[in-house]
Specification:
Blueprint: E1 4-7, E2 12-15, E3 23-28, H1 39-57, E4 61-66, H2 73-82, H3 86-103, H4 119-131, E5 135-138, E6 141-144, E7 181-186, E8 201-203, H5 205-217, E9 221-227, H6 231-246, E10 251-257, E11 260-262, E12 274-275, H7 286-292, H8 295-303, E13 311-313, H9 315-341, H10 351-368, H11 373-392, H12 397-414, H13 423-444, H14 448-460, E14 463-468, E15 471-476
Parallel strand pairs: 3-4, 3-9, 9-10, 11-13
Antiparallel strand pairs: 1-2, 5-6, 6-7, 7-8, 11-12, 14-15
Length: 477
């Protein structure tokens, strides 16, 4: 069975067929770094990291791009509020974000571009749209004329002219259409600004992702992901400006994860909730959630609901996920004790290993079906039950070793640690992942001296780095 993916644009599941056979070009919108992460940031990061892991597990080569928005109204306002430069602010919160993602087991992207490092590409894109008569300027900036793109609204089914539109639309009395969106904003006094053909200013939010996907993937993506809140207007605007510029299809598959909702915390059996958001005052900081349950449990909780569905947050659900992890690691630890102590000579009947192989097949079928992680986790729990039964029945060591490897292959795809982690171990792992992220940035900038220094330093501490296929993994000796 081929991998089936639900297309937001087509409103149906479709076989994943990529632009280049065997390769996936994947772009996922990253954070606007002006504050600490809340758990809403964790969901898309974990979801699309797991999708990436499964694509690679399935033998595909994945170029995974996830950007950093480091210039924005929110950033400017927060830097003024805190009395720090916008550059210091964004570096601080990008570092914090990367530490939090490493704790969650999220792999570093192949490329992590920062918006402000791609201003020339954005200007070229805007100039191209202007030359085609699709963009126009006013004293307040440069705008995309949605009337010149007949397919506007194709992705989300919305155009922004309905009364229920919740997003903020920039105001300008000289705009041709109320729905026209900003490509470039004329600088206000005291704001960060870059030179451009339209005078000093800064890019609009939507243009950055088009420019960066254009630079690294020639405006042709197999998968573009993000939260459901991005489908309109952000992704709708990305689609319009990219296809208007190139005349080609921009994205084959748009994937969107559902919202996180907040439920009651009084123990009631209420499975509904309201959408989580900072504006509603009900967002939970990610690092506070880490005090309720381990980062691995938080990841397990996220994967326990299909990525397209709403995800209910209650502290007790995180605790339930921690308990589920305990069952997995109790099995693994008992299995390892048996393997370490046994001098087994019992013939291998294959019963346990074959039983666990059945669960792996169920796992693959679940993940092939639009990355159905709840069903994939059910296969993991089934495997744990079968291994426990094999341990109770004194199954041969050879079978148990094979069953262990099969279980670990599933845990690896889901990004769950292969062993129980203490707080200290988790912190160390997070620091190593952060160093790998810094090293990846250094390699991208051809700063090989820094890259080699990080590799050698980690090596001296007993941590080996393996660079393969554009990715870096690490193991402890």
């Amino acid at each position: 069975m081929s991998i089936q993916v639900y297309s937001t644009e087509k409103r149906e599941k479709m076989a994943l067929e990529t632009i280049e056979p065997g390769r996936v070009r994947m772009y996922v919108c990253g954070p606007t770094v002006y504050d600490s992460c809340h758990i809403g940031h964790a969901r898309p990061a974990v979801v699309f990291d797991t999708i990436r892991r499964y694509l690679e597990y399935s033998g595909l080569s994945v170029t995974f791009i996830s950007n950093i928005t480091d210039i924005d109204d929110k950033i400017i306002n927060r830097s003024r509020e805190l009395g720090v430069s916008w550059r210091d602010l964004t570096r601080r919160y990008q570092d914090e974000y990367e530490q939090d993602m490493a704790a969650l087991g999220v792999l570093s992207p192949s490329i992590r571009p920062r918006a402000t490092e791609h201003i020339p590409e954005m200007i070229d894109l805007i100039k191209g749209l202007e030359d085609k008569g699709i963009a126009y300027s006013t004293p307040k900036g440069v705008w995309f004329d949605v009337s010149k793109f007949p397919d506007y609204g194709r992705l989300s089914g919305r155009t922004g002219d309905d009364e229920n539109t919740e997003h903020r639309v920039e105001q300008d009395d000289e705009k041709r259409n109320p729905q026209d969106f900003a490509l470039w904003k004329t600088a206000k006094p005291g704001e960060p600004a870059w030179d451009s053909p339209w005078g000093p200013g800064r890019p609009g939010w939507h243009i950055e992702c088009s420019a960066m996907s254009g630079k690294y993937c020639n405006f042709e993506l197999d998968i573009h992901g993000g939260g459901a809140d991005l489908s309109f207007p952000h992704h709708e605007n990305e689609l319009a400006q990219s296809e208007a510029f190139t005349g080609r299809k921009f994205v084959r598959f748009w994937l969107h994860n559902g919202f996180i909702t907040v439920g009651k915390t009084d123990g009631a059996d209420d499975e509904s909730g309201e959408k989580m958001g900072k504006s509603k005052g009900n967002a939970f900081w990610l690092r506070d959630a880490f005090t309720v349950a381990s980062p691995a449990a938080l990841r397990l909780w996220i994967l326990g609901t299909h990525y397209r569905m709403p995800l209910l947050y209650k502290p007790e659900l995180l605790q339930n996920a921690d308990n589920a992890l305990d069952r997995i690691y109790n099995c693994v630890e008992e299995l390892d004790r048996r393997l370490a102590d046994s001098a087994d000579v019992i013939p291998d009947s294959g019963i346990v290993a074959n039983a666990v192989e059945e669960t792996v097949e169920a796992f693959r079928a679940a993940m092939d079906d639009d990355f159905n992680t709840p069903q994939a986790l059910a296969a993991v729990y089934d495997a744990v039950g079968r291994i426990n039964a094999g341990l109770k029945d004194n199954a041969p060591v050879a079978e148990l070793k094979m069953a262990r490897n099969l279980l670990f292959s599933m845990l690896g795809v889901l990004g769950l640690p292969l062993a129980r982690q203490s707080g200290e171990d988790s912190n160390i792992d997070g620091l190593v992942e952060l160093l790998l992220t810094i090293r990846a940035d250094a390699r991208a900038k051809k700063d090989f001296a820094l890259s080699d220094s990080i590799r050698d330093g980690l090596g001296a501490l007993g941590i080996d780095i393996n660079d393969r296929g554009g990715q870096s993994t690490w193991t402890k000796r």
